[in-house]
TrEMBL record:
Native source species: Vallitalea pronyensis
Stated name of the protein: Uncharacterized protein
Origin: domain of life: Bacteria
Lineage: Bacteria, Bacillati, Bacillota, Clostridia, Lachnospirales
Amino acid sequence: MNNDEILMIIREEGLNYYNWYNSKKVKCNQVCIDLKDDHWIVFTTDERQHRISENAFDNENDALQEFIKRLRASNRRRKKRN
């Protein structure tokens, strides 16, 4: 997977509540991806905007797969609650 494929999936599936490489301020209950010191970091934020369940990856492909997996799961949970 690459960035363009992930962004296309996000658009096509109407996924929300994510932060793409620090493109905006981190908010509560988001799935986030970031690049820091040659490592891709995927994490989720809680209701207080704290990082939870953070994973670091040595390659972007693995990080993107984890990011989209978490984002899909997060959006499914939100839909069930509504």
